[in-house]
Amino acid sequence: MQNLIQFLIKYGYLGLFLLLQFICFTLIVKYNQSQKEIWVNSSHLYMSKLSQRFANVNQYFDLKTENDSIQADNAKLIEQIINFRIYDTDNTFNEFVQKDTMPYRIIPARVTSKIVNQANNFVTINKGALDDIRPDMGVISANGVVGTVIAVSDHFAKVMLLLNSRSQLSCNIVNSEFFGTLKWDTGDNRTMYLDAVPKFAEISKGDTVVTSGFSTLFPKGIMIGTVEDFLIPEGSNNYSIEVKLSEDPTLVNLVYVIDAEYSEEERELNEIDKDELQ
After folding, report:
1. What is the pLDDT of residue 149?
2. CATH number at residue 185
3. 3-state SS track over the chain
């Protein structure tokens, strides 16, 4: 009680002043038409702006849900494109339509953390074992290859980016049967090098480089980049091809994980020692 009295003594005059100000303001607005109109218009303008602020806030919080929905739709489109490309190449698309089989399934995900600008770059995505993510699954973006899943927990997965000193990817140049291995020299984030393409292959600057399909990670034809330059090192029978990536993998935030239906079976078969087959 004593504290309340002390509070009133300390701030009573201020409270009384504010109360009288409010009464005066109310009387002015109530009994003066021009001031009343100014108050009504001003209050409507203020409330409109306030409502717009609240709408923007709500839209911001709804944006993630909307983006997730768009990404899921994109995943379905990418899935259809990849599967159509595989079956169309094998001239079995009619069988694909009848059976509705999909050898590749696309799982959308979002990057949650990054370790970049190093010799070995990684990102973590928000999908894991409970979402059917496994090690040795390819990861792409809407514009090209991002990397490979190397470890998973229930809800997250660690992805080794293309920009990693340990990364090696089988690629070929569009409209060419020759293929090589794509590697990164820990330099520019948009530049990699394609080795082991024989020197008698016809190459031009600007040629498109895509995945070869000779692995269980990526289907054939996923965009990598374009030929920026090439040369034949002295004493070598192969080109060293500079490839400009279609996208910097370290900047990607929305990704798609490729689930190949028979990848485990193919990988287990490839790991069987040759002696066991003799």
Report:
1. 96
2. 2.40.10.340
3. CHHHHHHHHHHHHHHHHHHHHHHHHHHHHHHCHHHHHHHHHHHHHHHHHHHHHHHHHHHHHHHHHHHHHHHHHHHHHHHHHHHHHHHHHCCCHHHHHHHCCCCEEEEEEEEEEEECCCCEEEEEECCCHHHCCCCCCEEECCCCEEEEEEEECCCCEEEEEEEECCCCEEEEECCCCCEEEEECCCCCCCEEEEEEEECCCCCCCCCEEEECCCCCCCCCCCEEEEEEEEECCCCCCEEEEEEEECCCHHHCCEEEEEEECCHHHHHHHHCCCHHHHC
How far is Cα 233 from Cα 239, in angstroms, rounded to an integer? 7
Which residues lie below 8 Å from residue 157, measured CB to CB, with a gap of 6+? 109, 124, 125, 127, 128, 133, 149, 151, 257
| Residue 23 in domain | no
In the chain, the percentage of residues whose pLDDT exceeds 70 is 69
Report the alpha-carbon distance of residue 205 to residue 228 in Å, rounded: 6
pLDDT band at 41 (very low <50, low <70, confident <90, very high): low
Q: How many domains are there within the chain?
A: 1
User: CA torsion angle for 88, 94, 97, 100 (degrees, to 10)?
Assistant: -80
Whole-number Å distance between alpha carbons of 100 and 48: 52
Query: What domain range is 242 assigned to?
Result: 103-262
Tokens for 240, please give them.
């060293």
Nearest-5° angle of CA 35, CA 37, CA 39?
70
Distance CA 103, CA 162 (A): 24
Query: Which pTM value belongs to this model?
Result: 0.70
* pLDDT tens figures, 131-167: 999 999 999 999 999 999 999 999 999 999 999 999 9
